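pipeline/complex-builder :: batch 7 item 3
reading input block
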Amino acid sequence: MSEKTPAITQATLVKKAAPKSDYKPADVSPQRRVQRSFAVRLWSVRHSRLLEWFYARFSDMFLLLHPLWKRIGYGRVEGPIKFVEKRVKGFMFDCRMCGQCVLSSTGMSCPMNCPKQLRNGPCGGVRANGNCEVEPDMPCVWVKAWEGSRNMAHGDKILDVQKPVDQSLRETSAWLRVTAQAAAAREAARNVPKPGAPA
Amino acid sequence: MIGRQPDENPAGIHLPLDPLPGHTSRGRLERVLRRGEFAVTTELNPPDSADPEDVYNRAKIFDGWVDAINAVDASGANCHMSSVGICALLTRMGYAPIMQIACRDRNRIAIQGDVLGGAAMGVANMLCLTGDGVQAGDQPGAKPVFDLDCMSLLETCRIMRDNGKFLSGRKLTTPPQLFLGAAINPFAPPIDFRPYRLGKKIAAGAQFVQSQYCFDVPMFRTYMQQVRDLGFTEKCFILCGVGPLASAKTAKWIRSNVPGIHIPDSIVKRLEGAQDQKKEGKQLCIDIINEVKEIPGVCGVHVMAYRQEEYVAEIVDESGVLKGRQPWKREIRRDDQLVADRLDHILHDEITETQVDMVKTAH
Ligand code: SF4
């Protein structure tokens, strides 16, 4: 499963052979370069219960506004909503706009920040201190997700098996998608004739 | 009469076995596990060459000691012969490979194709892994793919097998018959999530799991206790990963450089105190096997002896886990042997045979 060559790994050899110059980027990996500190992300995980509560209210509100969205046209509101969603979730969770938000099932820790983009739990490489295998100074996204989920009312959703990411939905608004789907489900439920009711 | 070994297709060693009720694959490993025998699996060190003999030579040292051989998929993100290639070679010779599929290098299109290809070549066991990050290997500049994760990969394979469909819903004309596996690491944080994660894997389709190197038996025991309480041992065969450590230095190096392998201080101390560290490492491995095989729910061991493959047979033998059973072994069949001898005789011995002589010798 894993290598056990003593002393020097192939990776160190490759790194040593790389051409030398004065410019050395300070970050560990490209992943890390697009991120700020982890403080806000970790705050969100610590307050996962509050955020869960807030999110529930928030999505109800969005659903209430469904007629409005429909009137204006989902296609037309997409732009502005996405603009807000990207900034807000980007700030709170370091969101990557995968377009199929699973924050409520992952303890409010965005799984797309995992360098392997795992959606179903931690890999086997998590370090003993709880940091990531790929980025030694980042707390493993899934260690945090587990902690966050333990605070939440519906935290056991973390045990559901998630479908693979649909890459074609990237950079779209998950808020609007969820709202439209919920509205459609509500519609469908309403159209089903009640058992016992006259046809 | 040709003496036949258990779990071998009489029509040819490279052919799949007869289907049995309740079995999802036509391979040897599933039969061994379902019969309740203590299974032994190991890992083949993949060659950096295009010579099939390299694979056969490396497989030969396990002959008669293991039930299945893992064909690793660029483990540690280092380039080697592909797992599909190794499996193609091994199945031809009748071995039971476990084809590892890592999500690091291929997307869902390539992986589903490989699953079909592997199954068509007679691979009965597939092990779904996430894979190490590219930063760990010899090509840190590679693009990490991670299109699926191990869980969705398991589910994809299960859907292909049970529903006869691709992930997209398109139909397969002949679905693959597979025994699906996954890896577990009970030794990495978040420790209390790990048992539930096994549950997730079982829900996604895992029928057997191989664990990461186990050096901390009490920790493994606690994990197994939790897993048993959750009822997972009835749904899944658990193989414990073990392996010899070459020296105390290697142990320390692994501990600080290979994420996910947990080696307690007591182990390092024991190795340091030994005269012959290599021998002690082997003994340690045997001791661990003897301890874990008694834990209820452990159905076998997975012996990983990277660059010490020659020890696998000794370790298995000395620990006595097989209890006298001999796993399938590649043997030349009597009829093939007869033909080979005869050919040898004709080609290499300087004789001119006439039919009259042949009739005479035959009588
Ligand atoms: S250690 Fe955690 S964050 Fe890092 S790759 Fe593994 S699961 Fe992802």
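note: The pocket of iron/sulfur cluster is lined by residues A 114-116, 118, 122-123, 125-126, 132-134, 140-142 (CB under 6 Å).
queue -> next item
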